[in-house]
Amino acid sequence: MSNQTTKLVPTPGQTVGPFYGYALPFEKDNELLAPGSPGSIRLQGTVYDGAGETVPDAILEIWQPDADGRIVQKTGSLVRDGYTFTGWGRGSVGYSGVFTFTTVNPGPTEPGAAPFISVAIFARGLTNRLFTRIYLPESGEALATDPLLSSLDPERRKTLIARRDPDGGLTWDIRLQGEGETVFLDFQ
Prior knowledge:
Blueprint: E1 40-48, E2 59-63, E3 88-92, E4 98-104, E5 116-122, E6 130-135, H1 140-145, H2 147-150, H3 154-157, E7 163-164, E8 170-171, E9 174-175
Parallel strand pairs: 1-8, 1-9
Antiparallel strand pairs: 1-4, 2-3, 2-5, 5-6, 7-8
C-alpha cells in the first residue's frame, strides 16, 4: 500500500438549468403568506443581463425573518396553508423578466441591525447560483452601520437597497453584469 496521497480536484460548475416545469414549481411557491394577509407586501423586480436585456427564465429563492425579526423554524415550507409565514419562497421570472413575491417587511434579527432578505439567483449562463441581499430603504442608521453595506462603495451599496412603492411594496432589480451590477456575495 502506498503512502502517497491523492489530491482530488473539485468538479467544475455547470450552467444552471435547464429548469423543468414539473420539478421546481409548487403551488403558491412565491407566496410566503397569502396576498392580502395583514402586513403582507409585494416584493417585485426585474432581472437584467449584462446588455441590459431582461432575463426571461431565471429562478429566485428568498429567505427572511418575519416582521418581528424572528427566523422561522417550522417545517413545511413547500406546503402553503395561506396563514403560516414560512420565511422561504421560490419564484420564477416571467417572459418579461419580472419576478414577484408576497411576503412581509423583514424585521431586524438583533437590535439596531438592518433588516434584509437573502436572495439566491439561478439562471442560464450561470455556472453557480448567485447570492445577494435586499435591504429596506427606511433603515437609515442601521444601513449606515451594516457591516456589509459599510464595506462597499456608495454606488455599489445602492444595488442592494430596494425602493418603496406607493402601495407599501418593494421594488428591487437585479443586474447580473455591467453598469449598475448588483453586489453578489461569495460564501467560500
